[in-house]
Specification:
Oligomer: single chain
Radius of gyration: 23 Å
Number of strands: 18
Strand content: 15-25%
Helix content: 25-40%
Largest sheet: 10 strands, mixed
Structural class: alpha/beta
């Protein structure tokens, strides 16, 4: 009898030891999404950059690197599509970004990713950059599904004093004011704290307090590595070999961001959450070459529909991956994260607006073919390139950038800034943005230009990711098909929402950026 009791005790102890594993199998995974800002294709170590990113390299090597992954060419559009799972033409946000004084936000009829995760039983927290509209309280992160929020509402700011300077055109002035919120309250007392470290501290604090039995959705939208170029000297010191001062500062900012990702991962491990966590890392758009970033060898940059503006650095790291240590070349877009993550959470998407994203978890985890075969990059009839392009005196408008006509039978106006991807093909119309190849940092090459732009351009992106060989004349049937597809997409587009600035946005000399309506 004693031995039976002993055996029962041993079995009981073993069952107790097994319990966490059993719970982990049945519990939805924790989800941590880290979004970098303006992080270029050539700025991560595993793309042969001169910048050291040991944490990103290690995590991605043990996970799945996404090498056919696309984002939007600007901040608000990428964040909009991440949060809605919909193309920006379907939310009326296909033009530029949300500027601080514009009275609009992601339409309130849209159910956002954190709301869906919350419905699935998740604790939802956000740290960092919002940039999805703030003109009234209902637009704020804590009204759109996040339990807590700590960060800034506009598109950029000083990394240390957390102020954002923006013109208020109706008042003919430029206002510099604090932009930092804890929940819905203005957060003071953080002057001098470097934002990459400040946001990492808040993220790790959230993780440390998280109950393992409650699934976590943590969205960390880092300010790094967006301009202004600011970083503590200790991060810059290893890059004395970089001659370009902007590139050197930028490299330090990347190192600080890499350390942040490492610290967030360590916090997950220390809290005992890592074994049941899916961590996604993504940039929001390509690098801006005016501020130290590089998309080499890809063409173009931020603000453009060339690969340098939209092909994104991204990977997934998780012990839950079925084929870790691999590279995925399946076509994946930032709009795919909503159905993918809600699917992992066991949530429902049948009550959202019609989605453009796909659940790509099996593509990432198991190496299956991507369910996505087409990707609308954008259609923006109002596009203007507002930043200087080397060799040009100013940004060009659509009418100035193209001449001639093509695709007249498709019904699509080929002077419109647009691009679409289908299988291996990519078609661009109008003026796609700054169209040059910027040289490899530290190399001897010079900025190179291509032949004059055509109204319609076709590239085989799988064979020609650098977009050097334009083949529209060789494949007229492909051109016609993709122009018809652009026309179909354009017919489904909502009218562009891009209101004039509202003078009531002005926070005044002692105020803070935030809701005013």
């Amino acid at each position: 009898m004693a031995s039976l009791n002993l055996s029962a005790a041993v079995i009981g102890a073993l069952c107790v030891l097994c319990l966490p594993s059993v719970l982990a199998v049945n519990q939805p995974p924790h989800v941590v999404f880290i979004l970098a800002d303006d992080f270029g294709w050539h700025d991560v170590g595993y793309h042969r950059s001169e910048i050291s990113t040991p944490n990103l390299d290690k995590l991605s090597a043990a996970g799945v690197r996404l090498e056919n992954y696309y984002v939007q060419p600007l901040c608000s559009p990428s964040r909009n599509q991440l949060m809605t799972g919909r193309y920006q033409i379907h939310t009326g946000m296909q033009h530029q970004i949300i500027w601080p004084c514009q009275p609009y936000c992601v339409p309130l009829r849209e159910k956002l990713l954190p709301q869906l995760m919350k419905e699935a039983g998740y604790a939802t927290h956000m740290v960092g950059k919002w940039h999805l509209g703030m003109y009234k309280n209902d637009c704020l992160p804590t009204r759109r599904g996040f339990d807590t929020y700590f960060g800034y509402l506009t598109g950029s700011e000083d990394y240390y004093n957390h102020t954002h300077c923006a013109p208020v055109p109706p008042l003919n002035l430029t206002r510099c004011a604090l932009d930092l919120r804890d929940g819905e309250e203005v957060a003071t007392g953080y002057r001098g704290a470097y934002s990459t470290e400040l946001f990492t501290d808040r993220a790790t604090s959230i993780i440390a307090k998280q109950e393992p039995s409650k699934p976590l959705f943590l969205y960390v939208a880092l300010q790094a590595v967006h301009a202004p170029l600011q970083v503590p000297e200790r991060y810059v010191a290893p890059y004395s070999f970089i001659q370009d001062p902007d590139r050197r500062l930028y490299a330090g900012m990347v190192s600080a961001m890499d350390e942040a990702v490492g610290n967030i991962t360590l916090a997950l491990q220390q809290r005992g959450l890592w074994e049941n966590t899916v961590l996604v890392f993504s940039t929001d758009n390509g690098a801006h070459t005016l501020y130290g970033g590089s998309n080499w060898p890809l063409r173009g940059r931020k603000w453009s529909l060339w690969e340098g503006g939209i092909r994104g650095v991204g990977f997934v790291a998780s012990p839950l991956l079925k084929q870790p240590g691999t590279v995925s070349r399946g076509l994946i877009h930032i709009s795919d994260w909503l159905p993918t993550l809600v699917g992992l959470a066991g949530g429902r998407i049948n009550h959202t607006q019609p989605l453009d994203g796909f659940n790509v978890w099996n593509t990432i985890s198991k190496g299956f073919a991507s369910p996505r075969v087409e990707l609308l990059h954008n259609i923006d009839p109002l596009y203007v390139d507002i930043t200087p392009c080397p060799g040009r005196d100013r940004g060009l408008t659509l009418a100035e950038a193209v001449s001639g006509s093509s695709g007249a039978n498709s019904g699509f106006n080929v002077s419109i800034h647009a691009a679409i991807r289908s299988s291996n093909w990519k078609l661009l119309t109008g003026y796609p943005g700054c169209d040059i190849w910027f040289p490899r940092p530290g190399g001897n090459g010079s900025t190179s230009k291509a032949d004059p732009l055509k109204p319609v351009m076709l590239f085989d992106i799988e064979k020609d990711p650098e977009e050097r060989n334009e083949v529209s004349e060789q494949f007229p049937a492909v051109v016609d098909l993709l122009l018809r597809r652009l026309h179909q997409h354009q017919r489904s587009a909502l009218p562009i929402t891009f209101p004039d600035d509202d003078p009531r946005c002005d926070p005044g000399p002692a105020g803070a950026w935030g809701p005013w309506a």
